[in-house]
Amino acid sequence: MSYKLRNEVCTLRAAETLCSFSPALSKPLQETGGTSRDSGGNLPGRQQRMFGRKTSGEQCGPRGRRRMKANDRERHRMHNLNSALDALRNILPALPEDAKLTKIETLRFARNYIWALTETLHMADHHPHTAASELRSPGSVSSLEWDSASPAESWSGATADELSCIQTSNGHNPTTLSHHAIVLIPLSTTGAGVSTETSLCRKKEVWVS
DNA sequence: TAGGCCATCTGGTCCT
DNA sequence: AGGACCAGATGGCCTA
């Protein structure tokens, strides 16, 4: 089962569980819960257990109603947060269709990506005459953790103006992506003494399309 | 089977 | 008072 499908099932069950608590709440969920995740599928085990769980939201009375409203808002808030993450994933460089970054991966990759772009701009200011035609073929490879917490440190092997473009694995199975890499193929401005390829990769494995 | 990831519920805290 | 935000808890699914 793909990552995406797994989450579809998960959200579906939660949605239907919610409906079981209060049919009235199913509407906002369908409207905002955003996404295709809320449609289709059957209702296996997890929901059965959720049905059985006694929550304060199930209780009638003012307190129970307040809790249910708060739960609804919280759910809505988290859906918005996830939508923002999806939007962020969409503007990150060319990931394969099926490959969805996890939340933490998305944030870390975005951070690293921004860092790379910033450094590229910075170096472009210092070397305005540098042309894309000077792109060289990759040579040595230095592997870096894909979700490195500190891009500036992790990418110290390459000067900033080397970081020019980003490629990704084009594997179709999302689980394969976790074993492959997103690779920054650098531009060389001087052609001397610099590493020619820097990668963001997971599990120390570099894969270049 | 353990670990990772996820959605949801929940109570506390802060803000308007 | 009510909403937003946060972090902990819970439980399901998947992969290695």
UniProtKB/TrEMBL annotation:
Biological process per Gene Ontology, one example term: sensory organ development
Record-linked Pfam families: HLH (PF00010)
GO cellular component, one term: nucleus
Keyword terms, alphabetized: Developmental protein, Differentiation, DNA-binding, Neurogenesis, Nucleus, Transcription, Transcription regulation
InterPro entries documented for this protein: bHLH_dom, bHLH_transcription_factors, HLH_DNA-bd_sf
Annotated Polar residues bias: 139-155
GO molecular function annotation: DNA-binding transcription factor activity, RNA polymerase II-specific; E-box binding; protein dimerization activity
Ligase listed as a keyword: no
Residues of the BHLH domain: 65-117
Domain of life per record: Eukaryota
Gene3D superfamilies, A to Z: Helix-loop-helix DNA-binding domain (4.10.280.10)
Plastid in keyword set: no
Region named Disordered: 25-72, 128-155
Assembly mode: Efficient DNA binding requires dimerization with another bHLH protein.
Name of protein: BHLH domain-containing protein
